[in-house]
Amino acid sequence: MTETLFSSITQLVTPAPGPQRGAAMRELTMLKDAALLVRDGVIAWVGPRQDAPQTPHTQDLGGVAVVPGLIDPHTHAVWAGDRLADFEARVEGVPYEEMLARGGGIRSTMRATAAASVEELVNLARPRLEALLRSGATTIEVKSGYGLDFEAELRMLRAVRELQALLPATLRPTLLIHVPPTTGRAEYVQAVCTDLIPRVAREELAVAVDVFCEREAFSVEETRAIFAAARAHGLRVKLHADQFHALGGTELACHLEALSVDHLEASGEAQIAALAASDTVATVLPGVTLHLGLPAAPARLLVDAGACVALGTDLNPGSSPLFSAQFALALAVRLNGLTPAEALTASTVNAAAALGLRDRGALAAGQRADFLALHSPDWRDLTYTLGLNPVRDVFVGGQNLKENAL
Ligand code: NIG
Ligand code: FE
């Protein structure tokens, strides 16, 4: 048994464990002059320093604020090639969707990614995930979706498996059915259901299946078929929906008890009502709003309607080259109208729920000891600071990342 008492914490700030919805997202617990006891990678006790249990091993955190490790529930961190020419063209006025319709955008990343080996993908993704970790993300979802052909999709997921062995963060792999081939799409969807999904499930290469439900990608009916196959093979489902057009994917996903629906920039009253009435997490991605200049997802309205809102980076080369979970959190306060307290809940326990996890995201006995020591004595610096990392130390299972030379 290993036990460490972390002390000299000016503010220990946390939501309650488990998903929080509506007004409960603002209900943080704040302990001043606190301590935190970690036993074998799990939080054993949290409370005022003067009540701390005696233990031979203590660590003084030096008078700073401590919050739960952030959870990034939506990334496309594995890709090859770049989208720099796309970016320049977009800034000069070519819309993102038009680029995709012309065979560029996501499709150009697919060509580069499909040509890369597992080893190359691992080497490309590793520093991106390390950057997310240093920004405070202790659990990170990573999607496939730039493979298109099945062998390339499987290579992406194998790369995630190899990355898991190299990095202290928990990686959660998701099979993403991203855009259809330009010919034979009905056969493609059929083969996804009868070949790709069963292989991914058999080899345990992913825990969930995601679909990009959009005019330039998959229809609601195609999404329904892919979800049925995923569920039949014991995989959870999640959805990219309402990024440009509200096609009905959000309503379908809520009806099928999807883990989360992500994007929601084009969501209206019906989609907000569907999310608020379901246990499906509404995940907003402010990096996309910033990078593509899209409207912000209506996180404020979602919280006010009683939904469970999470937020993530959507790290990817095309719509969100955002390598910081902390920056995503700070953006959600500016762009999506979340309060600092709501944004912390969205980035921790609610992001965990978007991944089907309940053992993390809060500083409470029994939760994983994933936590952050900031540079500041005031936790709100996490939501305030832009472009400078306010996270001083990242602890995963009670271990400081700096001990892993990260
Ligand atoms: O979440 N919208 C679809 N998929 C990604 C973007 C992928 C890309 O542009 O490479 C997203 O925004
Ligand atoms: Fe995405």
Automatic annotation (TrEMBL):
Cellular location(s): Cytoplasm
SUPFAM superfamilies: Composite domain of metallo-dependent hydrolases, Metallo-dependent hydrolases
Binding site for 4-imidazolone-5-propanoate: R83, Y146, H178, Q243, S319
Residues binding Fe(3+), per UniProt: H74, H76, H240, D314
Binding annotation for N-formimidoyl-L-glutamate: Y146, N316, G318
Substrates-to-products reaction catalysed: 4-imidazolone-5-propanoate + H2O = N-formimidoyl-L-glutamate
InterPro entries found in the cross-reference section: Amidohydro-rel, HutI, Metal-dep_hydrolase_composite, Metal_Hydrolase
Co-factor binding details: Binds 1 zinc or iron ion per subunit.
Keyword field: Cytoplasm, Histidine metabolism, Hydrolase, Iron, Metal-binding, Zinc
Cofactor(s) annotated in UniProt: Zn(2+); Fe(3+)
Gene3D superfamilies in alphabetical order: Metal-dependent hydrolases (3.20.20.140), Urease, subunit C, domain 1 (2.30.40.10)
Pathway(s) it belongs to: Amino-acid degradation; L-histidine degradation into L-glutamate; N-formimidoyl-L-glutamate from L-histidine: step 3/3
Protein EC: 3.5.2.7
Domain (Amidohydrolase-related) ranges: 66-399
Binding site for Zn(2+): H74, H76, H240, D314
EC category name: hydrolase
NCBIfam families for this protein: hutI
Protein family (similarity comment): Belongs to the metallo-dependent hydrolases superfamily. HutI family.
Function summary: Catalyzes the hydrolytic cleavage of the carbon-nitrogen bond in imidazolone-5-propanoate to yield N-formimidoyl-L-glutamate. It is the third step in the universal histidine degradation pathway.
Name assigned to this protein: Imidazolonepropionase
Organism from which the protein derives: Deinococcus aluminii
Taxonomic classification: Bacteria, Thermotogati, Deinococcota, Deinococci, Deinococcales
Gene assigned in the entry: hutI_1
